[in-house]
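Checklist before submission:
- one chain only
- standard amino acids only
- sequence pasted in full

Submission:
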Amino acid sequence: MSKLAGMTINERLFHVGIMDEFDAAILSRDQEEAIALLQRVELSKEEAMATVATIFEAPDTYGYTKR
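Returned file contents:
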């Protein structure tokens, strides 16, 4: 079983050390980079795409300020 199993997405990003990279990708609206980073923490491409789309739809809800 993976070390990341059972962790939230934020916990996974923090554990792997790429939280700041993910935040930067979201803030710059770099969809491809955000998806790639989520795949590095063991989300499927479909899960990563859905997660990024959800964040982009309502960034304030997830702590990101619209630019």
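Reviewer check: The mean pLDDT is 95.
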